[in-house]
């Protein structure tokens, strides 16, 4: 029986795209160094990037195989033996019989540019000198280009394999020697690598890929665009080998994939269905909840929306503005200057906490609202002495002075504080008793385990548990939401109202780590807390909820995704902060006040004006 690829392809045209697409994690094992010999360092550049496939074009002349793109480029020093066979043998010997130390296989694709019979004869003669290669089960030698016709394949050693072609028919025995099928992408689409293929082209290309996979063969395309969007597209369609002339660029891209892709593995987190009680109205504001997503920009928000399959509590809010967040001494702010601007209304230098650019201390919102009889609380899914929460009670010229920042809390009116960082409260400063012991003398309860959250009865307390503020990827659980709910429940007993700042601290960490799953899971956790705040606001109609960020971290771009599946594909431009404006969302009475574009200091001004008027 003969098997013809075109027949299988015709059967699959019109089938559901991706019906047979493989679900794989793409690495450099899926990378193909196209025209590898044209790189400054043939073989080794791709090899040391762990490419799974390397291609060499060869011309047979006078009993030798020369590696070149065309006959004019033939150089007597550039032979297949010198550039590929000898280096590959040396690596196999160095790695105790394997092409790679990690046990990965290696495919050498040899593209014949001259007569198939003569070229094959010369190749077999040369390969006889390299049993390390020909007898190695981890090395695959595949002949492409002007290859012998299938009927002649039995004349050659079994270690010689062949690149499958669509316009040929194969017997079962011949098909067994075809591990790979290569096609000209331009024969199926004129797509230039920008945006997406038109639907008809995509179905045609996907059907071809599926037809090859139905035969349990691998597929690659040549003449494909060579950019990130193409690499992503081909990977999503299940192409086994992604070809490139940009070896280092593709290697960097594939090496970053595990940290750049998020796939939802659980159901979406439940949304609170907003009731918009007193939303937009200039009515009384008794309570203010300021939620800060550290490092959260629009890309992080939309990544969370995609991962949660098209739902976020945050995106139910109707009133939206933008905050400009440069520091006094820098176009790009850090968390210290960004949080200080929101907490005190003062622009300051990076790394300054609760002081202006000249070093003068300024009171923060918790200090100022106590005149109205309001209580305050600070919550962080990180260290409570870190920059963002610290700006709401500390006053130091350097954010790393965390022991001194902890001691500053002794002069703060904040009633409740939850997060990590207990060590800074246990250490003494200037030979005085530790802040923890002094706080206990002032009537604060000090809890050191998150398990104590539901049993705390005091009106003034600190819950500091470093083990509870690990990343969501390490199963932190609902620390932030439960802490916020407990705090709202406690402080609502005060008839004069309250101010709460709660920080989604580790969205920022995910950006610094250039890790999409890290950033996405932290964003989703932050959104769950946002839902709890919205629910509380609707329960009384006197609570203003503000959600913003101190800055964006990572320069995250979203290169692809699937809302239905909860899949996100991202790329970071930096491992630091960026200068872009961050969004401000508001919910409840006076939420209209937060529309527009303004400096981050205006958040302080708006909050204080609203509270002063009511």
Automatic annotation (TrEMBL):
Signal peptide: 1-21
UniProt KW Zinc-finger keyword: no
Record-annotated active site: 335
Binding, Zn(2+): 294, 508, 512, 550-551
Cofactor-binding details, from the entry: Binds 1 Mg(2+) ion. Binds 2 Zn(2+) ions.
Residues annotated as transmembrane: none
Similarity-based family: Belongs to the alkaline phosphatase family.
Protein name (Swiss-Prot/TrEMBL): Alkaline phosphatase
Origin species: Chitinophaga agrisoli
